[in-house]
Amino acid sequence: MDYAIQVKDLNKSYGSNQALVNISLSVRRGELVSLLGPNGAGKTTLVKHLYCELKPEVGRINVLGGNPCRSKIKRMLGVVPQESEPYDDLSVFENIYYAARIRGIGRREAKVYTEETIESLDLREYRNKYVMDLSGGLKRRTLVGMAIVHRPEVLILDEPTTGLDPLARRQLWDILKNLKKEGRAILLTTHYVEEAEVLSDRVYFINKKIISEGTPSDLRTRFSYYYEVIDYTSGKAYKVKEEELKEFISKLNGKFEVRIPSLEDVYIEMISHA
Ligand SMILES: Nc1ncnc2c1ncn2[C@@H]1O[C@H](COP(=O)(O)OP(=O)(O)O)[C@@H](O)[C@H]1O
Ligand SMILES: [Mg+2]
């Protein structure tokens, strides 16, 4: 079974507000997949089903071959929920160590796992610092440590870089890339197009329903309804349809450049038409 996560026809309503409409998606082992969508798109609602904070009313969820509410499956999951924080009045070491203990790991082993996690996340110099004295980026890194200390096969991160400064964001990207190399399945949610583009093997555009799915470059090409032509003589940029491109270019006199739209252009186009 090479699927780590499978979701089939998931629906969820809060009263009359339908937050998720017929969501189907999958994440393979070793794959990093992003759910990219604006605020209110249902990303958190969706991932909560994957770690058993919500149970499907309609639809099916399969994580590592089973029901994510089974304790055996839960132990193989690592989660960084949106807006979660480590305990302020514990040190980095203590936060990660207790996260391991809560997952049922014995004292001695938990200590070894914690030291390894601290090492792999480059948290050595902050090991004994209280979380209250750390920057937002280091707090988030501690949270990732708490989520991975028990060596889960599947990692779910809900907007892991929201609110971080650009440097802390890049550092977390590097951490995620390394975790991916270790063969874990990673599902992350984000509203940053660049983040999805840089990190993901595949992206799902989501806005209550799945609007589109593909590799970042798939999505860019598939949705290039138009090209962007930059006329260096006038300094203007134009959106030109493929069938009109030849004629358009033939009328330009000086230097010009033809680009396909960025993933961000595609995203904005899709979200505004959904
Ligand atoms: N506990 C809740 N009760 C009622 N409505 C909720 C609850 N959680 C989320 N919603 C609504 O569901 C929709 C999706 O929210 P959410 O899953 O948080 O989206 P995202 O994580 O993409 O920002 C929004 O309209 C939100 O207001
Ligand atoms: Mg959310």
Secondary-structure topology with pairs:
Elements: E1 3-14, E2 17-28, E3 32-36, H1 43-50, E4 58-63, H2 71-74, E5 77-80, H3 92-102, H4 107-120, H5 136-148, E6 154-158, H6 166-181, E7 185-190, H7 193-199, E8 202-207, E9 209-214, H8 216-222, E10 226-231, E11 236-241, H9 242-250, E12 256-259, H10 263-273
Parallel strand pairs: 3-7, 3-8, 5-6, 6-7
Antiparallel strand pairs: 1-2, 1-4, 8-9, 10-11, 10-12
The structure holds adenosine-5'-diphosphate and magnesium ion.
Give a short summary of the structure.
By secondary structure, the protein is α/β, with parallel strands linked by helices.
Structure description:
- It is globular and about 75 Å long.
- It has two domains: 3-220, Rossmann fold (3-Layer(aba) Sandwich); 223-273.
- The protein is built from ten helices and twelve strands.
- The mean pLDDT is 93.
- α3 (92-102) crosses α4, α3 packs parallel to α5 (136-148) and α5 runs parallel beside α6 (166-181).
- By secondary structure, it is an alpha/beta fold.
- A hairpin with a 1-residue loop joins β8 (202-207) and β9.
- It is 36% helix and 28% strand.
- Adenosine-5'-diphosphate (ADP) binds next to β2 and α1.
